[in-house]
Structures are given as structure tokens and as C-alpha cells.
Amino acid sequence: MKCPFCGAHDTSVLESRVTEDGQTLRRRRECGKCLKRFTTFERIEGPTLFVIKRDGSRQPFDREKIVRGVIRSFDKRPISIDLVASLADEVEREVRRKEVSEISSKTIGKMILKRLRNIDKVAWLRFASVYFELADITGFEKLLEKAAN
């Protein structure tokens, strides 16, 4: 494992733990050169899963895209990065449980919206406005009505 601080390849594992969800291995490491410590995560990687975009194109599933999109929806909102990571983990597990080789971005968006609604309505509204491609105030008014219910 390459040290993120000095780039040396001489690192050693100090401690390994399974995370709460049981799907990830957390390793605490130390660089043999600069002696700085850092954490790595090992995750099970299943078969390649493709996401079918709105335009019909296909891209490999990327959990980090979920994280980036959700973080944008929480801009200037009181939320922890751990909660965002947990949401992304939940969505990824749900997607992989379906045991399909392709899934639509629309389906993934619905999974995210379902979770966001229970966490923060403002973030839900922001994410939904992009997801539903709202172009005018009427669309926002309908979403606000939905959020109020």
C-alpha cells in the first residue's frame, strides 16, 4: 500500500477491524518511511454493474457519484460525511441485492430520494429538483407540496 503522505510503498498494518455493516474491512496503517498513520478500507467488489443513463448510454456503477450528488444536495446543511457514506452504502447494497447486471439511473435516484426524505427535506428537494429536471417554478411548487406531506 502506497503512503498518501510521502508515496513510499513500505507500510505496515497496525490494526484491522470489520466495520459495523460487516461489508468493509478497516485497516489502520503506518508508513515505514515518514511514520505517519492513515486508514484504508477494503470492500467486497461484486460483478461489474452498469448504470443505464437517461440518454441510453451505459456507465459502470460508481458509488462515489452517489456520494458527490448527495453532498451537493446537503450544501450548507448540518450533516455529517458519515451519514452520506452510510446512505451511499445502503443504496449500493440495495442495488447489488437486485442481482442484475444493469440498472437505470432513475431507479438509483428513487432509492436516494427515499432515504433523503427521511433525513433532510431541503436536501431531498435539492436532489429531487435535479432528478426530475425541473425547469420552472411550477415544478418546484409541486415538489414543495410533496415535501410537506
Major sheet strand order: 1-2-3
- What's the order of the H and E elements? EEEEEHHEHHH
Tally of DSSP helical segments = 5
What are the segments in which pLDDT stays under 50 over at least 5 consecutive residues? none
Mean pLDDT reading: 88
- Alpha carbon gap, first and last residue: 50 Å
* Spatial shape: elongated
Please indicate the percent range of residues in DSSP E strands (runs of 2 or more).
15-25%
By secondary-structure content and strand pairing, the structural class works out as alpha+beta
Number of strands: 6
> Percent range for helical residues?
40-55%
How many structural domains does the protein architecture include? 2
Largest sheet: 3 strands, antiparallel
CA radius of gyration is 19 Å
Tell me what the structure shows:
- With 149 residues, the protein is an alpha+beta fold.
- It has 2 domains: 11-43; 50-148.
- It is 44% helix and 21% strand.
- The chain is built from 5 helices and 6 strands, in the order E-E-E-E-E-H-H-E-H-H-H.
- It has helices at residues 63-73, 81-97, 105-119, 121-131, 137-148; strands at 11-18, 24-31, 37-43, 50-52, 58-60, 102-104.
- The strands form 2 sheets. The chain has a 3-stranded antiparallel beta sheet, with no helix packed on it.
- Helix 1 (63-73) packs across helix 2 and helix 2 (81-97) crosses helix 3.
- It is elongated and about 60 Å long.
- The mean pLDDT is 88.
- Pfam families: ATP-cone, Zn_ribbon_NrdR.
- This is Transcriptional repressor NrdR.
- Its cofactor is Zn(2+).
- One of its GO terms (molecular function) is zinc ion binding.
- A zinc finger (unnamed) spans 3-34.
